[in-house]
Batch of 2 targets.
Target 1
Amino acid sequence: MPSADLAELRDAIVEIGRRLWQRGFVASNDGNISVRVGPDRLLMTPASVSKGFMTPDMMVVTDLDGRVIEGAPGRKPSSEALMHLVAYRERPDIGAVVHSHPPLSTGFAVAGIPLDRAVLAEVVTTLGSIPIADYGTPSTPELAEAVAPLVKAHDGLLLANHGALALGKDLFAAYYKMETIEHFARISLVARMLGRERLLSREEVDRLQGLRDRYGIASPAPVCPDPATMPAGADGDAASCQVVVAPSSPGERLVPDTSVARGVAAAVGTGGEIRLTYAQLTSLSEDVVKEIVQA
Ligand SMILES: [Zn+2]
């Protein structure tokens, strides 16, 4: 790669690091950014630096096995290089990877709640769903192994009790996906605090998926088929498709979410204590009244 292009990519990493830090997506030396600069070459952030205060000369060039090819004296590649390497290995189509710890997405990752409900058309069209990779100790091969099966079909992931990962065709595409993940987490949290989420119907999700082709939106995998129409025992596999929660409701674009009621049923089933917010209680009562009226 010509050195002018490489210089631009170093500058772009500095800029994206600054945005991650300014938005509070990272604290201290959290997070890492990498970009493909040749068939067997990556440019990535160094270990142990704040992403808000990097300079272009800090970046490290490695091969796809993580060996350092070029870097300023004393600079080592990011401690999460293994996770980046596995993403490039599993996805020859991507050109950049961004990892950070945005507080709302990471909150969902800590709670063990994937961002997989069909709520926002833009998210369904671009990312599909954002599943959670199993917990793996940071900076060990364990984390890379946990991420490997899911990166095949997803451009955005939560990492259990850790943070989020975004993949893109270039640096800014990956960074914008990170912004979308956090924005989606924020909106999902507000809707859940308000006590209800109206979901897009399966039919609307299918329509949105059609838009991917029309607008040339690249996606590593399709949305998984509706579990309700699949044979017993079969299930969508998050390694090959994107699991999106969207109930079938022909003719409807939006449908009510019954997950609050389902959650209570599960809590009663295990004999656990039930705690509901006033909004959840109101929503439940309304649902019960509706069911009685319909019956
Ligand atoms: Zn991390």
Target 2
Amino acid sequence: MSKMSSAGLMSLVSCLGAWAVLVPSACFAAAQPVLSLPPFVITGRVTDDRGAGLESAEVRVRKGETLLARGNVGRFEADTSANYALSVPMANTNLATAAVAGDTLTLEIDSAAGTYSDTNLVITAAKPGRTLKLNVQAAQCTNPYGLSDSYLADILAYVDAVGIEGFLDANGNYQPNADFDGDGVSNYLEYLAGTDPFDADDAGLKILSWRAVEGNPDLMEATFLPGPNRAYSAERAAPDAGNAPQFELRPHQLTPEKNGVAKNYLLTGNEDPEVRVIYLYKEGASSLYRLRLE
Ligand SMILES: [Ca+2]
């Protein structure tokens, strides 16, 4: 699970808490005392058929047919990569309006395009107070590549219409691991990043430049070209970790001054792509840095 600041998570929980279905007081008449338990939180990103964060939708959690929690997909003020968060009320005994740890729950997404019943997810309720990070794509994905079916259909039609040779294999199949435009990012990762697999200048997930800030050499300036409605973080690993470096989330700044406001996630909107700049403090004599697409 990605790291998330406790402050960010708390504000998410409180801002969406009003959506949670409260346990009616009548239920407290049950023979077994009902304890007040913290909710089970489900949070993450809901994306569309292009891998972009959905701007509006409703996410619901049901136990059987019973609605336990609902919340809106959108953007939060908190420093989080998530675009939804649900607080599922929890109980220590079987209630119609709350889950017990181990219950089978269903997560459903309802957007302007309808309810994505094909993508309903079955979740096992965790213990009260736990958080499950869950990214969901609200699109049909029945091909073996991990793409949405609509993206695959569009890209096959485009290759056919324009007559692009070499993008598909000899049997006419999509090649997820190939890098057609040679920008160092595979066709599949370009899909996830929302960049153009036919244009090497549109190289999502590549750090384009990396240099010390003039007058403040402890701070490094990194530029990259993000895709639309994506969330990114920066990660660092020590250089001596061999073939399996352990990358860890590192906060970044959006401005180059000393001790500026640090945050963990950079979120883009649906504006035209433009090169973005983030600033990271140098750590140790040398380090490996990378961008992470959330
Ligand atoms: Ca590429």
